[in-house]
């Protein structure tokens, strides 16, 4: 109840209709879903060609005219979008049917490349919230259920003591969330989180696989009181079978992995067969691309997304930097939604402190979000004593900003690690995926096994 009221305050009232729309899609015939998808695809392409100055210009130059073409076949002729292109053309990509000020701004976190600001129209935001709740509910998590949250986006976490965060704190309280910050790496933090969770009795645990696995292993190793939940939800990273087993043992629950991004909401979700990720075709159109061409089902390539909901700033054929393949065969569960068979691109190395304790690499992706002059970051750890941080910066970058970056690093990494900062013009990309590898650990495996102090 409180949750619904707050959602209304946030201006996303009406999301229940979109959730129900998602549920309805699970019971449709495959052919009907396919024809709906084609209609949505055609509509967003026509809209983009008519009202987004960026696409209008670009497509005219190469002789493309969405109104007269057949989708999805013709989509192959349309140029790709990258985060670099979004960054440099954002304003021009916004549809002239919307006022930029009326759109909801958001940013990508930098898990796969530098941070990018983008916009969506309100109806899209509402749909995303609704469809995401549909996915969560399908995986056993309904609004209002208590959840333990192991997360890394610092801006999504409450900052105790700061008045401006009170509203967010209240909202999280109302939504029955229990939030643990990024510091799952310290034993004391995990003990404290365990203590709170035991009292709180969450129905759901939600977070990054690596962080949840670390916490689960800690609970087991220490012989702490087991925490049983109804379901474990993981996102933002690949989930290995071994991690799934550990999570089942630690929390007596089945784990559902999700493929969610800030731009596109929940792209995919697991069914009870855990065969891969079913794609929400009411929200996105997925293509797998290799060497610039769409590959057949079963073949691996870069996951490329056309957003079917964002009419404020159409995102057509956007390359995600994630690697995957589409299943050749339908899932035995009977859901009509196509299946993303593998998701291989989202793996992060960890960083180690000199005392052997671990900082999950994915969490570092969320540092420096408040320093816009830092366009991208790469962490390279050659040995356990030292961390090299490469910052791709703009001309506006100052020494004061570097000091602030160092402060944030120290806060996360402690004072014992030697940290050196290097300003660079461009961080080299992985030649295969084209994405930045944000965290590179060159520490020998034996060194990683150092006993954890304390
Ligand atoms: Zn299935």
Which class of secondary structure composition applies to the elements? alpha/beta
Number of domains: 3
Strand arrangement within the widest β-sheet reads: 4-3-5-6-7-8-9-14-13-12-10-11
- Radius of gyration over all CA atoms, rounded: 22 Å
The tally of beta strands, per DSSP, is 20
**CATH fold-level topology of the largest domain:** Rossmann fold
Name the CATH class of the largest domain: Alpha Beta
Helix fraction by DSSP (H/I, runs of at least 4): 25-40%
Taking pLDDT < 50 over at least 5 consecutive residues as the criterion, the unreliable ranges are: 1-9, 152-166, 444-454
CATH superfamily of the largest domain: ANL, N-terminal domain
Q: Beta-strand percentage? A: 15-25%
Q: Report the sheet with the most strands, covering strand number, pairing sense and barrel closure.
A: 12 strands, mixed
Count helical runs.
13
Distinct small molecules bound, one entry per kind: zinc ion
Overall geometry: globular
The end-to-end span amounts to 44 Å
User: Which architecture of the largest domain per CATH?
Assistant: 3-Layer(aba) Sandwich
- The average pLDDT score comes to 82
SSE order and pairing:
Elements: H1 2-9, H2 15-25, H3 30-51, H4 53-61, H5 83-93, E1 104-108, E2 116-120, H6 122-138, E3 147-150, H7 166-174, E4 177-180, H8 187-200, E5 204-207, H9 209-221, E6 231-235, H10 241-251, E7 254-261, E8 265-269, E9 277-279, E10 284-290, E11 293-294, E12 300-307, E13 318-326, E14 339-343, E15 351-352, E16 358-359, H11 361-364, E17 374-383, E18 386-393, H12 399-413, E19 418-424, E20 439-441, H13 445-448
Parallel strand pairs: 3-4, 3-5, 5-6, 6-7, 17-20, 18-19
Antiparallel strand pairs: 1-2, 7-8, 8-9, 9-14, 10-11, 10-12, 12-13, 13-14, 15-16, 17-18
Zinc ion (ZN) binds at residues 271, 273, 275, 278, 331, 333, 335.
């Amino acid at each position: 109840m409180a949750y619904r009221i707050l959602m209304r305050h946030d201006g996303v009232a009406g999301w229940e209709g979109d959730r129900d729309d998602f549920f309805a899609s699970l019971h449709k015939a495959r052919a009907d879903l396919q024809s709906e998808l084609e209609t949505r695809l055609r509509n967003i392409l026509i809209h983009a060609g008519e009202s987004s100055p960026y696409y209008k210009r670009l497509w005219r130059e190469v002789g493309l005219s969405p109104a007269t073409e057949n989708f999805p076949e013709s989509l192959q002729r349309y140029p790709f979008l990258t985060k670099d292109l979004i960054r440099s053309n954002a304003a021009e990509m916004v549809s002239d049917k919307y006022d930029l000020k009326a759109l909801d701004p958001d940013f990508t976190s930098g898990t796969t490349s530098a941070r990018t600001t983008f916009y969506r129209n309100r109806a899209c935001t509402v749909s995303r919230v609704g469809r995401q709740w549909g996915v969560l509910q399908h995986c056993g998590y309904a609004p209002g259920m208590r959840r333990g949250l192991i997360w890394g986006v610092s801006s999504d976490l409450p900052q105790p003591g700061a008045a401006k965060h009170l509203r967010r704190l209240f909202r999280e309280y109302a939504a029955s969330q229990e939030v643990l910050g990024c510091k799952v790496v310290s034993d004391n933090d995990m003990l404290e989180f365990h203590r709170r969770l035991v009292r709180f009795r969450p129905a759901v645990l939600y977070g990054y696989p690596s962080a949840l696995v670390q916490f689960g292993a800690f609970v087991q190793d220490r012989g702490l009181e087991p925490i049983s939940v109804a379901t474990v939800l993981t996102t933002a990273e690949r989930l290995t079978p071994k991690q799934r087993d550990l999570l089942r043992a630690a929390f007596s629950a089945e784990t559902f992995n999700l493929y969610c991004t800030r731009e596109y909401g929940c792209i995919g979700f697991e069914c009870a067969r855990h065969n891969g990720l079913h794609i929400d075709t009411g929200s996105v159109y997925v293509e797998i691309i290799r060497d610039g061409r769409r590959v057949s089902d079963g073949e691996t390539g870069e996951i490329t997304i056309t957003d079917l909901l964002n009419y404020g700033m159409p995102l057509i054929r956007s390359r995600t930097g994630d690697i995957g393949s589409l299943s050749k065969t339908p899932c035995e569960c009977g859901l009509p939604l196509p299946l993303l068979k593998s998701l291989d691109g989202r793996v992060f190395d960890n960083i180690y402190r000199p005392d052997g304790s671990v900082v999950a690499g994915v969490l570092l992706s969320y540092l420096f979000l408040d320093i816009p002059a830092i366009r991208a970051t790469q962490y390279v750890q050659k040995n356990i004593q030292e961390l090299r941080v490469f910052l791709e910066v703009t001309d506006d970058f100052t020494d004061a900003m570097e000091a602030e970056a160092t402060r944030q690093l120290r806060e996360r990494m402690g004072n014992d690690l030697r940290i050196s900062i290097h300003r660079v013009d461009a961080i080299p990309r992985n030649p295969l995926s084209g994405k930045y590898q944000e965290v590179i650990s060159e520490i020998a495996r034996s060194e990683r096994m150092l006993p954890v102090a304390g």
